[in-house]
Design a protein that fits this description.
Helix content is about 55%, strand content about 10%. With about 775 residues, it is an alpha+beta fold. It folds into three domains: about 280 residues, Nucleotidyltransferases  domain 2 (Four Helix Bundle (Hemerythrin (Met), subunit A), Up-down Bundle); about 180 residues, Hypothetical protein af1432 (Orthogonal Bundle); about 170 residues, Biosynthetic Threonine Deaminase, domain 3.
Length: about 775
C-alpha cells in the first residue's frame, strides 16, 4: 500500500501549481535537464517538510540529519522520510513521538555507537551517510567526522557496498520480472527505475577512478533522474503510488506533452532500458579486474565483422558498451544499404540456433541489432497494452530469437511437439530463426495488418542481404501466417475439414506446416511463458496430426477432384459419406461414380468394388426415392446370404438414393453382380433378432436420429430397416457400423408424428423395456 503524503491539504493545492510539466516533450536523444521542474519541486517539498519539523521546539536539540531521497534532492510527496538523530536519546524519543501524534510518518534511527555510525548497519545505510545533509552545526560536525572515517576506509566500504548492490539488484530483477511491471512499470524499484539510477550514480562516485569515458552514461542517468522523478512526483500528487498504472498513463502522457499514451509509454520504456543498461555498465566497471578493463579499452575494431567477433567472444555489458561506441564509425546509418550482404551474413550467424544465447543477447543490448535490422528501433519500448503480451515488442522479438535456440537444444520442452521438432532439418531451423526475427517487425505501423505488412519488410531486407528466392518466400509465408495455427488449434475444431481446407489453401502443408507448429509454440513462450502449457502443446500436435492424416489428405483430394469433375454437390457430402467409406475406396473412383449418379437421367445399375485390403463394397442407386427402399435393399442382401458390416446410406439432391454397403460374402464377384442386376430373388424370411437398445439420439423439426445397438447377428440391419418401413418411416440416410462383435446402426429419419411414440413402438416390437 502506498504511503500517505506528508503535505497538508493546503500544501497539496500549492504543489499542483509548483510542479510543472516539462517545457518541451521529453526526447531521450536531446537531453535537456533544465526542462523539468522536478529538482525545484523536490527543494520546495523539502522546505515544507523542514518547516513542519522546525515548528517543534525540540528540533535543534535532536540534531537531525536527513537521509535518502530527501538528502539527494529526490523528494516526492509520498517519499519515505529517513532521518538519523545524533542528539540526546530522550529528546529524540519525545520529538519522534510528537511527530507520530501529528500524523507525520518518519523512518529514523540513532547510531548504535556514537563514535562509529557504521557499526551494526547495512551497507546501504553506510552509503546513505555519504549523501546525508545535517540541519544543525553540531550535526554537521559529527556527520563530517563520520564521513571522514568512512572515506578513510573507502576501499573496504565500497567493496561491501558493491556486493550488496549486486545482490539487491538481482533480488529486484527476479521480483519485478513480471507481466505487470512491463505493462505498469514501478518507477522506483522496477528495472531501469530510480533505484537502479541512484545505484549507478553512487557506485560511479565511489569508483570514479576506474572510469575513463563515463560522460555519455552519466549524461543519460542524470537526464532520466529528472525525467523519472517528475513522473513519480506527479503520480504521488494524483493519489497514486510508485506504480504507473494503465489508468494513470493517459493523464501523465498528456501532462508530459505526448500525442498519445502509447508514445509516452514507448518513450518511458526506452528510458528505463537505457538506465538499466548504463547502471549495469557502471557496476560492471566497478566490479571488473583492472586488467579486464584495460583489455577491453585496448580492443580495436577495423571492420563490421570485428564487432560481431568481439561480442561472440565476450558478450558481457562491458563489451556491449564498447561496441555501442563504435557503431557510428563502422556501421553508419547512411551506409547500411551498401552493407546489406555483410549485415545479412552476420545476422544469419547471430540467429543460428547453434549460436550461444549470450551472443544474441549482447547483439541486442549493444544496439548492434539496430544496424542489422533498423526497423527494430521503432519497436524499442513499444508496449503492447494487454494482459497477454509480457514484453515490449523489441524484447519479445529478442525472446523469440532466444527461445528458438532453447527448443532446438531441448525439444523435450515442447512436450507433444517434440517429435515434430526432431523432423526438422538445418534449412527448417534457418527459416524459423529468421521468422522469429521478422514476424512482428511491422507492429505499431498504421499501414495495415502487421503480418501482411511484415512480408514487405522481409522482401526488402532479404533482397539487400542477397538471400535466395526460396528462403525469402518461405520466411515471407511464415511472417504472413504466423498466427494462423494458434487460431485454428485453440479457437476452432481441429477435426473440422473446413479448418483443414482453410489451412491447406494457405499453404500449411508438409515442411511449412511443421515449421509453423514449432514457431507457434516459440511465439507463445516468447510472448508470455505463463501462457504455454501441456494443453496447448497437445492441441497444436493434434492439429498437425489431423492435417497430415489420411482422412485429411483424402479430403483435399476429394476437393480437387470435385472441382476437376465439376461435381455440383455441397462440400458437406464428404462428411456425410462417412469415414469408413471414404477411407476404404479410391477417392478418384468415388468422385467419378458420384458424378455419374449426378448426371444420370435414370437409375444406375449396381456397382461392386473391391479394395486392396479385400473389402467388398456395393453401390446401389435409384434416381427416385420411395419409402421402404432401404428395407428392400437389405432384405435382398439377406436373401442372397450377404452380411452387411458397414453402410453409407443417403438421399441426395439431383442424385436420388445413393447407398454404399460393405458386405461379407464367399460368392464370386461377377456372379454376385449378375444376381444384383437380375430380378429380385425370392424373399427370405428375416429371423428374430435381439437388440440391446433402441434410442432416440436427437429430434428436430425436420429429422430424427435413431440408434439400434446390439450384438452382431444375421439379419440385424434387415430387421431394423423392415421395422422402420412397416412403421411408415422415411429414411433420409443411415450409418451402419460393425465393431468387433457389436453393431451400431444409426438411422436419420424424416420427422413425422411423435418421436417418442416411434421409439416406444420399436422397443415394443423388439421386446425391449420401455424407457
Amino acid at each position: 500500500m502506498a504511503a500517505k503524503t506528508f503535505l497538508s491539504s493546503e500544501q497539496l493545492v500549492q504543489a499542483q501549481e509548483i510542479l510543472n510539466p516539462p517545457l518541451m516533450t521529453p526526447d531521450g536523444d536531446v537531453r535537456q535537464v533544465f526542462c523539468f521542474s522536478s529538482q525545484n519541486f523536490s527543494a520546495w517539498l523539502g522546505a515544507k517538510l523542514e518547516e513542519t519539523l522546525k515548528a517543534n521546539p525540540q528540533f535543534r536539540d535532536t540534531h537531525p540529519i536527513m537521509l535518502g531521497s530527501w538528502a539527494r534532492g529526490e523528494l516526492s510527496p509520498k517519499s519515505d522520510i529517513d532521518i538519523l538523530f545524533c542528539g540526546d536519546e530522550d529528546k529524540v524519543r519525545d520529538f519522534t513521538n510528537q511527530l507520530q501524534e501529528q500524523g507525520l510518518k518518519i523512518r529514523y534511527r540513532m547510531p548504535a555507537n556514537p563514535l562509529d555510525w557504521t557499526e551494526g548497519v547495512e551497507a546501504f545505510d553506510v552509503l546513505a551517510l555519504l549523501k546525508a545533509k545535517p540541519f544543525t552545526p553540531e550535526g554537521a560536525r559529527k556527520l563530517f567526522e563520520q564521513q571522514k572515517r568512512i572515506w578513510s576506509k573507502k576501499n573496504l566500504f565500497r567493496k561491501g557496498l558493491l556486493k550488496a548492490v549486486k545482490e539487491e539488484r538481482k533480488a529486484r530483477e527476479n521480483r519485478f520480472d513480471s507481466i505487470t511491471n512491463y505493462l505498469e512499470p514501478n518507477l522506483k524499484y522496477g528495472p531501469g527505475g530510480l533505484r537502479d539510477l541512484e545505484q549507478g550514480l553512487q557506485i560511479y562516485e565511489l569508483f570514479a577512478e576506474r572510469f575513463t569515458h563515463p560522460g555519455h552514461a552519466l549524461n543519460v542517468l542524470n537526464y532520466y533522474r529528472d525525467y523519472l522523478l517528475s513522473l513519480r512526483q506527479k503520480l504521488h500528487l494524483e493519489g497514486h503510488g510508485d506504480i504507473l498504472s494503465s489508468s494513470a498513463q493517459f493523464d501523465l502522457g498528456k501532462w508530459m506533452g505526448f500525442k498519445s499514451h502509447k508514445d509516452f509509454m514507448r518513450s518511458l520504456q526506452r528510458g528505463l532500458s537505457r538506465v538499466n543498461f548504463y547502471s549495469d555498465w557502471i557496476i560492471a566497471v566497478a566490479d571488473a579486474p583492472e586488467e579486464v578493463l584495460k583489455k577491453i579499452e585496448r580492443t580495436e575494431f577495423y571492420k563490421p565483422a570485428d564487432l560481431f567477433a568481439a561480442l561472440e567472444k565476450n558478450p558481457g555489458v562491458l563489451m556491449q558498451k564498447k561496441v555501442r561506441e563504435e557503431l557510428d564509425h563502422l556501421l553508419p546509418v547512411n551506409h547500411l544499404k551498401k552493407l546489406g550482404k555483410i549485415r545479412g551474413k552476420e545476422l544469419d550467424d547471430v540467429l543460428n540456433v547453434k549460436a550461444k544465447d549470450e551472443y544474441i543477447f549482447g547483439v541486442f543490448r549493444s544496439r548492434l541489432i539496430d544496424r542489422l535490422v533498423p526497423e527494430i528501433t521503432r519497436l524499442v519500448g513499444y508496449v503492447q497494452h494487454d494482459q497477454y503480451h509480457r514484453y515490449t515488442a523489441d524484447s519479445h522479438i529478442l525472446q523469440a530469437c532466444r527461445e528458438i535456440k532453447r527448443v532446438f537444444a531441448k525439444p523435450k520442452e515442447l512436450g507433444p511437439l517434440e517429435a515434430i521438432a526432431k523432423q526438422l532439418n538445418a534449412y527448417d531451423w534457418q527459416v524459423l530463426t529468421w521468422s522469429c526475427m521478422y514476424h512482428d517487425l511491422a507492429k505499431g505501423l498504421d499501414s495495415g495488418d502487421h503480418a501482411e505488412v511484415g512480408t514487405d519488410i522481409v522482401a526488402r531486407d532479404f533482397k539487400a542481404f542477397g538471400f535466395t528466392k526460396k528462403l525469402t518466400d518461405d520466411v515471407k509465408w511464415m511472417v504472413k501466417n504466423h498466427l494462423e495455427l494458434s487460431q485454428a488449434a485453440f479457437r476452432k475444431n481441429s477435426k473440422d475439414p473446413r479448418v483443414w481446407q482453410e489451412l491447406h489453401d494457405k499453404g500449411a502443408q508438409k515442411s511449412a506446416l511443421k515449421r509453423l507448429a514449432i514457431f507457434t509454440a516459440v511465439d507463445i513462450r516468447a510472448t508470455n511463458p505463463e501462457a504455454w502449457n501441456e494443453w496447448k502443446a497437445r492441441l497444436l500436435a493434434e492439429l498437425v496430426v489431423n492435417l497430415e492424416s489420411k482422412k485429411a489428405q483424402d479430403y483435399f483430394t476429394f476437393r480437387t477432384l470435385k472441382a476437376e469433375k465439376h461435381l455440383h454437390m455441397p462440400e458437406e457430402i464428404y462428411e456425410e459419406l462417412g469415414p469408413v467409406l471414404v477411407e476404404s475406396l479410391s477417392m478418384k473412383d468415388l468422385v467419378e461414380d458420384l458424378k455419374k449418379a449426378e448426371d444420370a437421367a435414370e437409375s444406375l445399375p449396381p456397382k461392386i468394388m473391391q479394395t486392396k485390403q479385400g473389402e467388398v463394397w456395393i453401390r446401389l442407386h435409384q434416381k427416385r426415392d420411395r419409402k421402404g427402399i432401404l428395407a428392400d435393399y437389405v432384405g435382398q442382401f439377406y436373401s442372397l446370404g450377404l452380411g452387411v458390416r458397414h453402410a453409407s446410406i443417403h438421399t441426395l439432391q439431383k442424385v436420388g438414393v445413393y447407398d454404399w454397403f460393405q458386405i461379407t460374402t464367399q460368392k464370386n464377384l461377377k456372379t454376385l453382380e449378375q444376381l444384383l442386376k437380375s430380378s429380385q430373388p425370392k424373399a427370405k424370411e428375416i429371423p428374430a433378432v435381439k437388440f440391446d437398445s433402441i434410442q432416440l439420439m436427437s429430434a428436430h423439426d425436420k429429422e430424427w436420429v435413431i440408434s439400434f445397438r446390439g450384438p452382431d447377428q444375421a439379419g440385424l440391419l434387415a430387421a431394423a430397416a423392415k421395422a422402420l418401413s412397416e412403421l411408415n418411416m422415411s429414411v433420409k440416410s443411415a450409418r451402419v457400423h460393425t465393431w468387433g462383435r457389436q453393431v451400431d446402426d444409426i438411422f436419420i429419419l424424416k420427422a413425422q408424428g411423435e418421436s417418442q411414440e416411434l421409439v416406444r413402438a420399436l422397443q415394443e416390437k423388439f421386446n425391449l423395456p420401455q424407457e
